[in-house]
Specification:
Keywords: Disulfide bond, FAD, Flavoprotein, NAD, Nucleotide-binding, Oxidoreductase, Redox-active center. With 466 residues, this protein is α/β, with parallel strands linked by helices. Helices cover 32% and strands 25% of the residues. The protein has helices spanning 15-24, 40-45, 47-66, 82-106, 163-166, 183-194, 214-226, 320-334, 363-368, 384-389, 417-429, 434-438, 449-460, and strands at 3-9, 29-33, 110-113, 115-120, 123-127, 131-141, 145-147, 160-161, 175-179, 198-202, 230-232, 236-243, 246-252, 258-263, 265-268, 272-274, 307-309, 348-350, 355-360, 373-379, 395-401, 407-414. Helix 1 runs parallel beside helix 8 and helix 3 runs antiparallel to helix 4 (82-106). The structure holds flavin-adenine dinucleotide and nicotinamide-adenine-dinucleotide.
Length: 466
C-alpha cells in the first residue's frame, strides 16, 4: 500500500494548489480526482470557460456595435460562428487543465483517478478503473461544490439548465430566462445577450449582486438594462415547467402579482452547495454541518486532527482564489509553519463589462457595524483613458475610517477593474490610509487614475478632475 504525508481529495484550485505547496515543502503528496481531467469546477466548468465565453462574446459585440465608431468598417455582415466559439472555449479549458498535469508531474505529486472515500481517518479507498487503498498521515478535503436549485425545479439539463450546460450549449437561446441575479446569472446572461438572445433575470432580492456594495448593484443594473437585459427584481419564482422546447417560469412580485415568462432556456443560478457525496466522511468521524459543509476551525482543521478541509466545501466565499489561499495555508500548517489569511481582503469580482470588483467592507456593512467612515467616489467617464477606449460607465469608491483615514473598503465598476482591485488589496494589506493612495503617482492615462482620484475625494474631498 502506498503511504503519503498528505493526500488531497479533489483537484480544483483548492486541491491542486494545496498539493503543489505540500510538495514544495518536501511532503510526499498524492492527489485524488474522480474525473479524468484535473482542475475541478474552476478550470472545467467555472472560471476559465466562463471567462473565455465572456471574452469571445465581448469581441463579437464590439464588432457589431462599436467598430464603426472607431472608423472600422466591415464589408458585409459580421457573422457569429457559435460552434467555433464553444470549440475555442473547450480548447482554452484543455490547455489550462493540461497545465495542471504538467504541474503535478513537475512537483512529483502522485495523481490517482477515481472517487476517494474514507475507510478510516488514515486510509482512503479510491474507486476508479481499479480499486486502490492509500495511507495518508494527513488528508486535505477539497471536494468543492455543485450548483444548487429550488425544490420545485426539475433540472433536465437540456432546457432547464445550470451553469455547466450554459457553457456548452449547441445554439444561442432565443429567450434565456435566468433565475438569480448573482455572479453566474449576470456573467452568463451577458454572454448570451451579446450574442443576440433576449435575456430576462428574475431575482428574489430588490437588487442584483446583493452581497456587493449597493452602489455597484445600482450601476451594473443601469448598464445591463441599457444593454437590453430585462430585470424582475423582488420576484419570487414559484414554478418552472417545460413543454417541448418551451420553458414557463412563474414568479410573484412583492404585491403577490404573478408574472409569467416563457423562454426556450432557463438558467438556474441561485447559488452553489458544498459537495461531499461519495466521500464517506462518516467513516473517519468527520463532522459535516446540516447544510452539507465540512465543519472546520480557524486552522481549517476538521474535528479529526489530521484531516483538513478547504475551498467551496467549507464556510466562506465560494471563490477560486479563496480556495487556493486556503490550500497554501493548510500545506504550511502541516509543514509546521504559522501562516494566516485575512478573509476581509479576499477580493470579489464579477467579469461582466463593465467589470465589478470589491474588497473590504461595503457601505451597508459599515453602517450596520456603526463605523464612522468617509466616502470618496470618482466616475470613470472623467478619465482621459475611458474616453480613449469608449468605456465610460462605472466609478471607483473608497471608504475610509473617519478618524484615522485607514481604507476600509474599495468598490469599483468599470473597464478592467478586475485587475485594478489588486492595488486596493495591497494598500489594505499594508493598512494604507486614503491619503497614502492619493499621494502615490498613478500612470497617465490609465483607469488606475480613478483610484487616486477616489482616494483624493475620500481624503480631503479634493479630486483633481471633477
Ligand atoms: P472545485 O473546483 O469544485 O473542485 C473540487 C474537485 O473535487 C472536483 O474536480 C471534483 O470532481 C473533485 N471531487 C469531489 N469529490 C471527490 C471525491 N470523493 N474523490 C475525488 N474527487 C472528488 N471563482 C472565482 O474566483 N472566479 C471566477 O471567475 C469564477 N467563475 C466561476 C464561474 C462559474 C460558472 C462557476 C460555476 C464557478 C465560478 N467560480 C469562480 C467559483 C470557483 O469555480 C470555485 O470557487 C472553485 O472552483 C472552488 O474550488 P475548490 O477547489 O474548492 O473546488
Ligand atoms: P450567487 O450567490 O452569486 O447568486 C445567487 C442569486 O440568486 C442571489 O442574487 C440570490 O438572491 C438569488 N436567489 C436565490 N434564491 C432565489 C430564488 N428563489 N429566486 C430568485 N433569485 C434567487 O450564486 P451564483 O451566481 O449561482 O454563483 C455561485 C457561486 O459561484 C458564488 O458563490 C460565486 O462566488 C461563485 N462564482 C464566482 C464568480 C466570480 O468570481 N466571478 C463567477 C461565477 C460564480
Amino acid at each position: 500500500m502506498s503511504k503519503y504525508d498528505v493526500a488531497v481529495i479533489g483537484s480544483g484550485p483548492g486541491g491542486y494548489v494545496a498539493a503543489i505547496r505540500c510538495a514544495q515543502l518536501g511532503l510526499k503528496t498524492a492527489i485524488i480526482e474522480k474525473y479524468n481531467v484535473l482542475g475541478g469546477t474552476c478550470l472545467n466548468v467555472g472560471c476559465i470557460p466562463s471567462k473565455a465565453l465572456l471574452d469571445s462574446s465581448h469581441h463579437y459585440e464590439d464588432a457589431i456595435k462599436h467598430f464603426e465608431e472607431h472608423g472600422i468598417e466591415i464589408p458585409g455582415d459580421v457573422k457569429l460562428n457559435f460552434k467555433k466559439m464553444i470549440a475555442r472555449k473547450a480548447a482554452v479549458v484543455e490547455q489550462t487543465t493540461k497545465g495542471i498535469d504538467y504541474l503535478m508531474d513537475k512537483n512529483k505529486i502522485d495523481v490517482y483517478t477515481g472517487t476517494g472515500a474514507f475507510k478510516d481517518a488514515t486510509h482512503i479507498v479510491i474507486s476508479g478503473e481499479k480499486e486502490q487503498t492509500i495511507e495518508a498521515k494527513n488528508t486535505i478535503i477539497a471536494t468543492g461544490s455543485k450548483p444548487s436549485s429550488l425544490p420545485f425545479i426539475k433540472l433536465d439539463k437540456e432546457r432547464v439548465i445550470t451553469s455547466t450546460e450554459a457553457l456548452s450549449l449547441n445554439e444561442v437561446p432565443k429567450h434565456l430566462v435566468v433565475i438569480g441575479g448573482g455572479v453566474i446569472g449576470l456573467e452568463l446572461g451577458q454572454v448570451y445577450r451579446r450574442l443576440g438572445a433576449e435575456v430576462s433575470v428574475v431575482e428574489y432580492m430588490d437588487r442584483i449582486i446583493p452581497t456587493m456594495d449597493g452602489g455597484q448593484s445600482k450601476e451594473l443594473l443601469k448598464v445591463m438594462k441599457k444593454q437590453g437585459v430585462k430585470f424582475y427584481l423582488s420576484h419570487k419564482v414559484s414554478a418552472v415547467s417545460k413543454k417541448g422546447k418551451e420553458v414557463t417560469i412563474t414568479a410573484t412580485d412583492k404585491k403577490d402579482e404573478e408574472v409569467t415568462l416563457k423562454g426556450d432556456y432557463c438558467l438556474v443560478s441561485v447559488g452553489r452547495k458544498p459537495f461531499t457525496d461519495g466521500l464517506k466522511a462518516e467513516n473517519a468521524g468527520i463532522k459535516v454541518t446540516e447544510r452539507g459543509m465540512i465543519d472546520v476551525n480557524d486552522q481549517l482543521q476538521t474535528n479529526i486532527k489530521n484531516i483538513y478541509a478547504i475551498g467551496d466545501v467549507v464556510r466562506g466565499a465560494m471563490l477560486a482564489h479563496k480556495a487556493s489561499e486556503e490550500g497554501t495555508l493548510v500545506a504550511e500548517i502541516i509543514a509546521g509553519q504559522k501562516p494566516h489569511i485575512n478573509y476581509n481582503l479576499i477580493p470579489g469580482v464579477v467579469y461582466t463589462w463593465p467589470e465589478v470588483a470589491s474588497v473590504g467592507k461595503t457601505e451597508e456593512q459599515l453602517k450596520e457595524a456603526k463605523v464612522e467612515y468617509k466616502s470618496g467616489q470618482f466616475p470613470m467617464r472623467a478619465l482621459g483613458r475611458s474616453r480613449a477606449s469608449g468605456d465610460l460607465d462605472g466609478f471607483v469608491k473608497i471608504l475610509s475610517d473617519k478618524k484615522t483615514d485607514e481604507v476600509l473598503g474599495v468598490h469599483m465598476v468599470g473597464a478592467r477593474v478586475a485587475d485594478l482591485i489588486a492595488e486596493a488589496v495591497v494598500a489594505m494589506e499594508y493598512r494604507a490610509s486614503a491619503e497614502d493612495i492619493a499621494r502615490m503617482s498613478h500612470a497617465h492615462p490609465t483607469y488606475a487614475e480613478a483610484v487616486k482620484e477616489a482616494a483624493l475625494a475620500a481624503t480631503e474631498n479634493r479630486p483633481l478632475h471633477i
